[in-house]
Amino acid sequence: MPYKPKRPCSHPGCPRLTEGRYCEEHAKEAASTYERNQRDPGTHKRYGSSWRKARKTFLEGHPFCELCRREGRLTRATVAHHITATRYGGTDDEENLMALCNRCHSALHGRQRDRWNVKR
Fold it and tell me: Which segment of the chain is annotated as a signal peptide (predicted)?
């Protein structure tokens, strides 16, 4: 299957081509800027190193998207979704997690209308 052509890095003045938004060098810089200036401090506390370890372990044990599998497709899971959000008392236990691909995760939050503080 053909790949998408690479595009220029979004960092001003960087000539490198990349498959994502930023080249490898500038991706780390953009991520740290986001963590420092835009992300909610409470979210940062809930999703620290212990969460990253739990997420990695969960996705190793559940490699496919659960919603895609229900529709007869096998898609690699990239997100460990909390069924009950941690801000509402949910935990990082396996019973409260669901393996999803990015597409299903975005669609789920779009249906719930809770991801971007949209009023119902």
Answer: none
pLDDT tens-digit profile of 49-75? 888 888 999 999 999 999 999 999 999
Q: What is the per-residue burial (b if ≥16 Cβ within 10 Å, else e) of 47-74?
A: eeeeeeebeeebbeebeebbbbeeeeee
Tell me if 116 is assigned to some domain: yes
Quick one: 84 and 34 in the same domain?
no
Residues 6+ apart with CB under 8 A from 115: 106, 109
Our count of domains for the chain comes to 2
pTM metric for this prediction? 0.60
CA distance 58 to 52: 10
Which domain, by its residues, includes 119?
Answer: 48-120
Burial class, 97, CB count within 10 angstroms (exposed 0-12 / middle 13-18 / buried 19+): buried
Q: Is residue 4 part of a domain?
A: no
Q: Are residues 39 and 54 in the same domain?
A: no
